[in-house]
Every structure is written in C-alpha cells, then in structure tokens.
Queue: 2 jobs
Job 1
Amino acid sequence: MNIVLLSGGSGKRLWPLSNNARSKQFLKLLTSEDEGKESMVQRVYRQIGQMDADVHVTVATSVAQVDSIRSQLGAEVDIVTEPERRDTYPAIMLAAAYLYDVKHCGLEEPVIVMPVDPYTEQGYFDTIRKMERAVRENVADIVLMGIDPTYPSEKYGYILPKREKKNGYAEVQKFIEKPDTSKAAELIAAGALWNGGVFAFRLGYLIGKMDAEPETSRFHMLMEQYHKLKKISFDYEVVEKAEHIAVVPFCGMWKDLGTWNTLAEEIGTDTGLTIRGEGTADTKIVNELNIPVVALGVKDMVIAASPDGILVSGKDASSFMKPYVEALEQRPMYEERRWGSYKVIDYITYSDERKSLTKHLEIHAGKKLSYQSHAKRDEIWTVVDGTGVLLLDGHTRNVKRGDVAYITAGMKHALCAVTDLHMIEVQIGPELDEEDIVRYAMEW
Amino acid sequence: MNIVLLSGGSGKRLWPLSNNARSKQFLKLLTSEDEGKESMVQRVYRQIGQMDADVHVTVATSVAQVDSIRSQLGAEVDIVTEPERRDTYPAIMLAAAYLYDVKHCGLEEPVIVMPVDPYTEQGYFDTIRKMERAVRENVADIVLMGIDPTYPSEKYGYILPKREKKNGYAEVQKFIEKPDTSKAAELIAAGALWNGGVFAFRLGYLIGKMDAEPETSRFHMLMEQYHKLKKISFDYEVVEKAEHIAVVPFCGMWKDLGTWNTLAEEIGTDTGLTIRGEGTADTKIVNELNIPVVALGVKDMVIAASPDGILVSGKDASSFMKPYVEALEQRPMYEERRWGSYKVIDYITYSDERKSLTKHLEIHAGKKLSYQSHAKRDEIWTVVDGTGVLLLDGHTRNVKRGDVAYITAGMKHALCAVTDLHMIEVQIGPELDEEDIVRYAMEW
C-alpha cells in the first residue's frame, strides 16, 4: 500500500514557534514513546511504521519543507516536491503521477492520501487498512475516512453516509461544508461524520483523469505545467464529482492541533528553561530561548518564546491570534535546514544603507552549506566549536574552533562540517535577507 | 544646601530588568516631562534641579553603579564611591567626610541625605527646604522627613512625633520599626508618620562623631578603614542615639516603586515592541528584546522581557518573585557602562573546556574601553557600525564598519569610539566571565 502524506503550508496560528519557514508539524512538542519530544510529522510517521502492513510512504510537500522533512524523518524518505503551493488538488495529482511515472506503481494499487498532522491513535491506521481493503474490493471510486464527531463544530466538512452499511463502509449521500452549530448538531443526529481529509483510491483512477500523449511522463508534464493547474481542493475538484464515493468511519481519538488552545492539552512537560512560581496553574510553557521564563500567578494560559517572539495568551484567546501576528512582517529568526539550523541572535538597522545581522549556525557532522555567494553583504564567520573544511573561491582550507573567515560580497563560499560545527556569522550590508543568494554547482 | 543621594544596592525584585549589575533606580520606565522615558534617579535628579534653591548634589554609591550614574546624570555629577557595600551608616559617614575634606564644606552647612528612588512630587522637595531651615534654626541634631501614611503598612518604620508642633516641625517621641498591621493602624491614629529615610543635619554634627588626629583627612581614613566599619543602618547607629530629633511631615504623593506591583501603576505606555490583542487589559508590558511580545487575553499582569529573562506574572503574585529569581544563578546579560552598554546575544557551553559567548557592544562617540587583557579567552571583534581607534599590544590602528580584530588570550587591547560604534564580540575559551580581566594604565 502507498501512503501519501500531505505536508501542508505554514501558518502563524502557532506563532512564535511556527513561521513562514517552520510549519506546526515540525515542532517537537509531543511526548514520544521514550518520553522525549517528537513532532507531529514524526509521530504520524512512527505510527505508520507500526502498522501491520507493507507500506511505502511518500511525502508531498513544497521545496521550503524538504530540509525539515529529511532532518526529522531521515534522508531516505521519499519526497515529491511541488514547484509551488497550489492547494490539494494539484498536490495529489502530482503525487499520483510521481507514483506512476517515477516509482512505477501499478494502476490497480491502492493509494491513501492523508494529512501529516492529525493527532490520533493506532485505530486510525486500522481504519486506513479498512479503506485499503474497500479500494481493493472496488466498492467506490474514492473511499473517505469519516471521523466520529465529538461536538457540533463549525470548522469541519461533514459527510452524510447513506443508512445502509456493508463490511464497515457506507456510500456517501452528501457533503456539507462548515455548517453552523445548529445545522452541525442536526447532521450529527442524522449520523454525519467529519471529513478527516483522508482519501483512498486506485492509482489508475487519478491517472485516468490526466490527459497525456502516450509515452510521455505525466509527472514531468505536471511539474512543468504546475503553475497553470487549478488552485482548488481535491474535495471540490475530484471527490465531489466522483460517481461512487464510500466512507469508512473512525470512532477513536482524533485531534486537530492547529491552535495553541488545542495543542496545549497535548504538550507534556514544559520545554526549555522555565520556572513556575506562586499560583501558576493550568499553563503550558514552551521556551526555545536560552534565557529563563519565570511564571508567577499565571492561570490557564500559554507562554511560548522563540527567536521569533514571545506569546503570552489566555488559552481561549489564543484562537484569535492570527491577525495580530500576521501584521508583524518579520523575517524568520530560526530555521531548521537539511544541514542543521540557524538562529538570528542580533539584528540592527543603523540607516537604510547600513544594517548588521548576526546568526548562530549549527551544522551537523558530515553536512554541508551549499556553494553560494551574496551580492549585497559581507559575512564574517567565526567557528566557535567543531571542525570543518571551508571552500572560498575555489580554494579549500581546514577550519577549527577559533578560526575566522572574511567573505566579501560576491565571493563564493561553502562549508562542510567534519564534526558538529558551531559558527557565529556576522552579516554587514545594505540589505540582509535570505533571498540574496546565488548557488553554484559544486561536488565535494 | 548639600543633598546626598544614596544610591542603594541592586535587588532582583524587578527581575528581569534589575540584576546584580543594574539596579531598579536606573530602569528607564517612568514618563519624563517631554513624554519620553526616564529612570528613578533621573527623575529625582531633575526634581532637585527644579528646586527653588542653590543645591549641590553628591551621589553616594558603590563602584558598580558609577558608570550607570555618569551615563544617566552626566559626567559632571559629584560621586563619592564606597569601597564596598556596608549599609547606610558607613555610607553616610563617608559622604560627610567627603563633603568636609574634599569639597571643603563648612561645619555649619546643612546636609540632606535622601534615597535616590522615591517616586514623589515637588512638595517633597519643598519639605526638604523646610528641613534645611529647621537645621539652620538648630531645632535638633537630626531632622527627619515623616511621610503621611496612606495605609497601615507592615514594611515601613514609623515615627511618632510629640503633640506639640512649632514652625512646621515636631520633636520625635519614639521610633517603631515595622509594626504589624493592627499596631500600625493604632500608630497612624496616634499621628505617627512613615520614616522616609530622609535625614537633615549640620555637617559638623557627623564630623564631630569621627575620631581623628588633627590635620588628617577623615575621608582618606574612612576609605582605608571602610571594610572595618560597622554594617549598620544610619537609623540605628545615629538617629536613634541622637538627643534631639525633629520630624517635618510631608503629606503629598510618595511611593516606593520596589516591586512590579507598585511600579506597574507608574509605567505609562508599553516599552518596546509589543502587541496587545483580544481581551488584554490592566497589563503592563516592558520589552527590551528586539523580538515582539504578543499578549492576548492577558488581564491584570506584568510582562517584562530583557536579555536576562522573561517574567510573566500576575500583579499581586509579582511580590513573591524573589526566591524564584534568586535561584537562577545567571550572569548579567545586559549592562550599562560608562562607555555605553553591552548585551549578551548568545552563550553556549559545548563542554567544561569549550564555551562561546557573543556580545553586541555599543560604545558612545568619544568613549573608551579601558586597556585590558584576558587570561582565559580569545576575542574576535567585528565592527558592525561606526569608526574608532583600536589599540593592540601598544600599536594603534583606525577601525571602521566591517573591520575585524583577533585578540588572543593575554593580548592587551583597548578601543576608542570616534563615532558611535557597534561591535560584535565573539569570546572563546574554557571560562568566560567578567572577572577574567587585567586592566592597564594607558593615556590616549
């Protein structure tokens, strides 16, 4: 069986931990099996690995997330990279074409597409097995997972099944998108389920929908034409137009940890340097800074601190965060990359033409910063721990703790960490942003 | 008239803004006359300057505060520096000896000693004038200010005056130190006043108490013997032993802004990059970091963020902060110095023998970092803005934005800023602390 994990875009509803470069599914806040911390994507990937089935996983995502996914799931994970963000319909079609043209999957093979971030239990994956069997038995064009609703939520789509049930599935009677609370209550009374965004189908069902000349690769065609594809959800463009749709219910624990309010319930211990004093209760503290957070007399709140900012919020009020943080217009101050991570530790504008920005970079042993140059800034690198090999305009030299490199604007530079390497990078220039970069091909 | 401002020790009750190197009186949180921000010491100094009198101000403080006082009050302010902290009796005796031996004040001159941090109004200084007149009229050995109590507080000393009043003062009947609430209420009913820690006397009264050989300088003697002086308050050692004590009442606004709870009332607008959203009310936010603080649904709290840490506290709970922050054992991450200020922006321990620490230093035009060396660390300096002159092991060179200096352990170095100069300093070594410093004499 093929599972396609849809790793969606970044949002700011978990600011300051999530940002344009760091989506909520990568935050290591959940308690792992060994009582450490794991992210949503790590949890789902682990749960899939525990399924009683031979499963091949492909992650469908955008280029911005590739580094984070490889860093968290390992270098071997299969990734299909969308050239740009265009909603779930183009993303799933591209993944299907990838499975067919690149992975040479058969047209009869069942494919399950699911989001990368549901907080759920093993029964969810048993339900996926039931969906797979329903596809193999050819009960419908598309088989959906219906989540047993726990309250009349206004934020989900509802699936109303027909009354008649066979072998654990039912045909779908109709879809109702985000009803108001009273309508939602009526629907639940009538047996409706939440649409969990899990789709199962034979690979051939989607491949058959793609126009293509014989012998051409649908995958390469879609990659080239991607910017022209309709920005529309898979639900609207495919599911609701399908002739035969079935739904398999799932009655277990399922949560959408999309806001601090919901996430707070699942965060175990406080993260980072935190001190709870006098009268602090029902409060979660996540501190990614290396200075302490002291909470006194704090009740029913969330406190989150990262290089991007500090959130202090009542749990309920956190749902209203979006407009405030979207107005911030700030560059990401922390990013996980394929090679490690960086943190902006200082940033000052002296005048329009004179800025400085200082980063702490951590490069994992054996990893490389790509060969690159910047047009508008000088960089002064100081290695503060570890060893590596530096490449400057074609010349290599070994570097170690205490070594300094001066990289002027236009100079090509790369670095390979031999051991885990920490570096302070001071940038000076009139414009200091991640977009000022030219990359060069270079095999080490 | 001479006013001696006692600039007391640092505490952590206003953590993370106050620390061992930065006392509460230097925090620029109060609203100044031009709607900017001023500190407690700046406010008091300004109010003294507005007095209708010829006043000479001397600040009595410890060496740790000299840089902050000069930076906030100007280079001209007269400072008497205690060799070490030893309570108010030795501090005031030293200041008196300084006025006599160094400033050559006459023995008949009135001296008023007052704390540097009362939050009060102009009437307070009118009361000081009345105290001065009482000293000139020789009504007592010591004249105190009695603050009209606003509630039966347990944290102040009380002065019970005799019933008979003349010319705005009364003789003191007795002192009662920190009574319980019911005793305090009784005292207030009987006409007792709070002891505001303001003492007025003829200079000769204190000078007469100092044993000294003729012709010797009491000031130099006290400086040398300072470590042997009794650690005791001026109230216990002098005031309560005096034969004739008078008190002048003050009935205006007077506040001790010693905790976040009391300070919060007097902070005007939020400081720094702050965003108040949805349901945030009755809350003060002070943000000295260059990342935003977002507060949602926060009620009746104080949020304070500095390079030392982040406090989130209910206003009432903030009074209980001391034990929690005293347990922190953290080096100061921000200090104001005579030459400007520094901020620790990164600090990592890789192993017992391998640490790195990165600072952003701001050195004001014309100011100098003293000639110094460090035994246990290398420093890499990168000038990120401004110009200056660098002195390295006896050799000078001009430096500007973009220049780098590598200062190995043992190397003597100094810097003079020509224009305002910003620098990133990367420290590498087995021990990185402010105590690892040897200073050298050097005239530029």
Job 2
Amino acid sequence: MPLTRPLPKYLVQRYHGWKATAYAENRAWFRRLAHDGQRPRAMIVSCCDSRVHVSSIFGADSGEFFIHRNIANLVPGYAPDGEQHGTSAAVEYAVRTLRVAHVIVLGHTQCGGVAGCHAMCSGAAPELEEKTSFVGRWMDILRPGYERVRDLPHEDQVGALEQQAVLISVENLMTFPFVREAVEQEELSLHGLVHDIAEGVLWQADDKGAFNAL
Amino acid sequence: MPLTRPLPKYLVQRYHGWKATAYAENRAWFRRLAHDGQRPRAMIVSCCDSRVHVSSIFGADSGEFFIHRNIANLVPGYAPDGEQHGTSAAVEYAVRTLRVAHVIVLGHTQCGGVAGCHAMCSGAAPELEEKTSFVGRWMDILRPGYERVRDLPHEDQVGALEQQAVLISVENLMTFPFVREAVEQEELSLHGLVHDIAEGVLWQADDKGAFNAL
Amino acid sequence: MPLTRPLPKYLVQRYHGWKATAYAENRAWFRRLAHDGQRPRAMIVSCCDSRVHVSSIFGADSGEFFIHRNIANLVPGYAPDGEQHGTSAAVEYAVRTLRVAHVIVLGHTQCGGVAGCHAMCSGAAPELEEKTSFVGRWMDILRPGYERVRDLPHEDQVGALEQQAVLISVENLMTFPFVREAVEQEELSLHGLVHDIAEGVLWQADDKGAFNAL
Amino acid sequence: MPLTRPLPKYLVQRYHGWKATAYAENRAWFRRLAHDGQRPRAMIVSCCDSRVHVSSIFGADSGEFFIHRNIANLVPGYAPDGEQHGTSAAVEYAVRTLRVAHVIVLGHTQCGGVAGCHAMCSGAAPELEEKTSFVGRWMDILRPGYERVRDLPHEDQVGALEQQAVLISVENLMTFPFVREAVEQEELSLHGLVHDIAEGVLWQADDKGAFNAL
C-alpha cells in the first residue's frame, strides 16, 4: 500500500491556475517574503472549521497574519512540562520570535468542537469522556467555560460556550509569562471575536467579556 | 489593565467591506453552511507561517477544506495518553467525524520551525533543548528526520528536513488506528506537498518519499 | 512676524482623540514599526488632491504603503543631472532601498493639474507657459500625452489626458535603469489606475494602455 | 514584457469592500466633491514613509487636506528657473489656486531620508554624494540643517536634524513670494510638527524653532 497518493486532479489544475495568475503577478512580493522572512503584524487563533476564512474577512495580504488553527480555537494554560504543546509552541513563536503586536482569538458559531464539549459536560456524550478521545481531552480546556454557562436557559448554553471558548483562551494566554509581560509593556494586545457564520457578523469581546457586534 | 482591546480600525473597515461584498453576495451559501454543517472534502495540515496561503493556492471555497495549522505542519505519533493533543484532536475530528476523503500535509520552504529544529539538533540552539521551550519540545517530533538528513552536504540539510517534516507527519498519521483503517479501506488518501514560497512551485511526495514538481 | 503659528485647536483636539484611541490601541505595532523600520509592500504615486484617499480605498494598515503624492501623480523621465528631483528620489528610495514589490500610479478624475495642462497645451492658459509657473513647468511632463489626445472629440480630451498622466508616468518609470532592471527580473511590477471620484470606480490600465473598471 | 500588471487580488477585494461601504454611504458627498471641486482648508507636506498617516492622526474627511508627500517632507527654496520642481508646483497650486489657510510641514522620527542626509554630511555615505543619486541630491536641501546640528552630541544629531527638516522647509516656504505675501496678509499660516512614531507624540515648533509636545 503506498503511503501517499497523487493529489486529486482538480486541485492540481487549480494550483496551476494560481501559479499562472496570482503567483506570476506577485512573484516579486513572494520572492521578497521568502528572502527577507515574514513579519506579520498579528497572530490569529481560529478554528479548523472549513467555514471560517479569516484571510477573506480581513482582506489579508500574504505575510500579514500568522495563523494557528485548531479545534475550537482554544489556547491551553501555560504548562512548561516538557510535553508537546503545539498551540503553546505557536504562541511562543509568534510572541517571542516574531513579536506580533496582536493576538486575535477568533471563535465562530455552529462550532462542532464546542457543541461536543457541551454534550460531554452535560452528560450526553460519554464517548468523549474516554481517555482515548483526543477531541474530548482537547475540549477539556473549555470545561471551566461550561461551569459558567450551565445555569443559563438550555437553548442559550451552546452560544454562550462559543463565547467562552474565546474568553478562556484569552485568559489562558495571560498565564504565559511572556504574553503577560508583552501585554503589560504594551507591546502586545489581545482581542476576542466570535464570527457568526450564517449572518456574517463579527462579535467583539469588550474588557468585561461582553460581546458586541462590530 | 483591560484583558482585551478593540480591533484596529483598518481591520474593522476591511471586515465591513467583506460583509458588504463577499458575504452579501454569498449569503445563501453561508446560511446553508451554517444550517447544514460543514462537509469538507479534505483536511489540510499546514504551517502557521503568514506566507503560506492554502486557500489561495487551491482556489478554495468556504466549506471546502478543514484546515489545521501549527508550527512546521507536524503531526505527532498516536499517543492516547489522556493528555491534550491539539493536532491529534484535529485529525480525529476530520477523519472520524467529518470523514474527509483526503489529508494533505503541506510543508513549505524557509520554515522557521524547521530551521530551528535543524539548529537544535546540530547543537547550534541549546535554548531550544530546554524543557520550557514549547517550540523546542514541539520540534522534537521532527528529530527522527534530522537523523535521516545529517549526512547530507550541509547546505542541503535544511531543505531536506523541510521534506522530512512532511514525510514524518504522513508516517505518524498512519500510526493512528482510525487513519490506517480508513486508508486501508480506501476511504481516505494521504498526500505530502512542499510549497516553495519564492518560486511558487508545489513539490509532491511520491510513494517512495521523493519529491517532484507538480 | 512669527514664522510658525500654533496649530488650529480643532486639529489639536482631533490629534488628542487619535492618541487616546487609535494610537493607544495600537501602541505595540507603532513601537515595533519605529524600532524595526518600515517594510512596505508597495509604493503609491498619487495626486495631492484632497479627494483622493488611497489608504481608505485599500484599507491600508500603517506600514503598508510608501506614498508619494504630487500634482497629477506624475513621474518624470530619468534625468541624473545632479538637480533636485523629488519624485525621482522617492522612486529611487522605494525601489532601491525599500525594494517594494509594486509601484502603483493612481490617477483620478476632475484633476486640476491635468485640466491645467490641457488648458496650457490648447492655448487657453498662457500664464502656465511662463518660465516662473511651477505648475506649468511640472505639467510639461504630461505634454506628450496631450499630443496623443488632441485629435479626440473635445469633450473626451481631458478624461483621456487623465489616463495619459498614468500611462506616461508608467512609461517614464521604465526609463529609470533600476526600475527597468527590477521589472525585468520580476522583482517589481507596475500598475496604472484611475479613480473616478464621483462614482467610486477604479479603472485599471491593461498592458495595451486601455482602462477597464475593476 | 507587459508594462503593467493586474492589481494583486487582495487589493481588488479591499477596493470592492470600500466601494460597497465607505463610498456607498458617502456617495452624495463624493459626487458633490467631484462636481464642485475640492476646497481644502490646509496643505500638508509630509514624508512618503509608510508609518506616517496624517489623515488618521487628524481624523481627516475627504476633501479636507491637500497632501504633498516626498522624501523627508522637504520644501526647496524658491527657484523659478524653468526646471521641474514638483514640490514647488504643489505649494504654488495650494496657495495660489486653492488658497489654503494653512501649510503644515509634518516631519517624523526614524526618517530614513534624514538619517541618509546625516550619514552623507558626516562622510559616512559617499554614494549619496554622487551626482546620480536622486536621494542624495534631494537631501541637499537639508545640508544647511546639518551645519546647525553638527556640534551637538553625536547621539542627538539625527533627532535634531529631523526637526531641521521641518524648520528649513518652513524657512524655504517663506522664500516663495506668494507664500510670504499670503502670510503677511494673514491669509495663510505656517505650522511645523514632528511626529514621534513610537510614542504617538506630536511636537510643535514654536516661533523660535523650539519643539514642544502638543
């Protein structure tokens, strides 16, 4: 059995189209980015969800955003235990090496990871409680958020938990000493957003954790 | 000190522009994506690097790719130890819940993470060896790749290690039982690519691990 | 008589408002821009006209565009005669020092400079022919454009001359050896636009010099 | 080789966003500006530097400022020699045709042009002394400023020269007969500012040439 397969032809065709147009027309810029290195202004932590397209929403140029995407746009707390923490590595690289000026946590509605977390915490998804569930263990990061929303009317809980995925990630970011230091020295600012996929609205967290439409 | 700050104004302006054009023109599609849920055909594992823009290269539509981005596009081996593994959670969600037909690992040239790994493994970056270095511990995933390239001429090692970041990730994917099973049942295929940022070329791994320009 | 006067109070007030909001919220970015230096992707040559606002049209971030503005967005031909050529200095700095990937010449409708040039060339503004007229001598750069439009119907001539202000500037850019070399090596690309102030349309020059709405 | 290239797609997208929002919401005003012509209250002479954003600092509306931008925000002395003087043309148009009430010269810290002038004058940049250096010849305007700061402690010289770029430009403005006449008739006032990019401070020249924070 071969380990890898050739790319589907429609993707190869699109790539060739990109190379003949967008790449060819911007060759100078790509070469310079390759030669000089990236210098992004902001890091974005968003979800893997295929419906979230941060470059499009913000009209981003190549080289503009350093983008980490994981399930439910979560940042765990600081834990320098020698284990592999991919998200913490991305935050460390962005803040310490690239010295970005902004970290934007971008949540979204209809998040499957958040819905799974809600099901798990409310007892409706025991399979996610198993030790072997990577999604379950990852969503443990959001458990404290469930505690904050469990007394809301049932139909409001998942939406509120989507906001908590952003707020808890921002709070966890501040547990990283180098993030806290950069924020305190006003070299870094943190931002929390939730993107409503259906309505196209961006909700922004204020400094009390309330969300307002931009 | 406020925890979050308002978004820079130029980003708010661009977002309003997006909402009035790309969103408004595709409202029906966004609403259907929100209502019906995503159904992406492929998962892409790529780097956080701001110069890698997979949606652009592949002309991707909203809803088409489930995208995980981390430092150096790495997938660790299967380790169901109850710890938080963000990348493994993303792979699990893509393969088991979304049942994507493809997982594409997309590496790139001039990767800061790979360069750091090379420096670490060759003794030039002792700070990355420290237990508290999240980037260093994350790049441990690529250590076996260094062993494979260390006897090459020095000037070829980093480029070869960028390819190893893709190949080792593909090999590690196959250590996940649910990935292996899906591949064996031909419900899933794996793909390995390296994107040359300066020249716009996509190099594709063949089933012997050699890379050829698409 | 004092040489300078205090700034009008309404401008001081607006500045204080900016400092307390846009500056304060982006302090990290401004400090980094100050410390690391600018690295703009593009140079823009546009008119001084108060109705042309390129940063707004293109949602530009601080640090994104190197902007030269003069009467009628003109670039003279290459003339290394030891005299003071402010526009040529700006082009030289952008291309040789900053190594921008794009030079965008942005013309506009209702351009007073172009209208003056048309009047001068058609004999209606003899005062602009005088040696002491700085505007007249500056608009001499556009005289070859008048030759190309003089046989058009009278009511089309000024609009055509606004396009010529862009095209001749692009042609003149190519007379600078360092511009031509960068273009030929695909390290730089040139772009020609005319902005319709009333209708908000951007017209783009194709490589035959015809303008099409974007 | 085509002379011009299509605009990068992200800029086209941002433009469409602008047209659908900022333009659409202000269509009446843009049409009136196009029909009636501009009537700016002030001319601003600032640097091309991508980090200087005068419209933002002063919350400017379309139609409010006539903006000339060149390397190091310099105005040469009056020289009606029949040659092309782009800056003098802009000043002439602003003062004589538009009859602005203010000319504001806006310098800034970390100015690459001023740093180059300092290097040239102190013997550290012989390449800028060459006849063919457009930047060098342009910065000759600031040579008298170097004479005024050369006896300061070395670490203070460049900052002082950034102030001189403003003061000498104001002095040169007064060599234009139509500027002097308008100033003497109190129809025009001149202003000198230096913008500190990192700290967001505006320093204003008083009538003795000392700078005080606004």
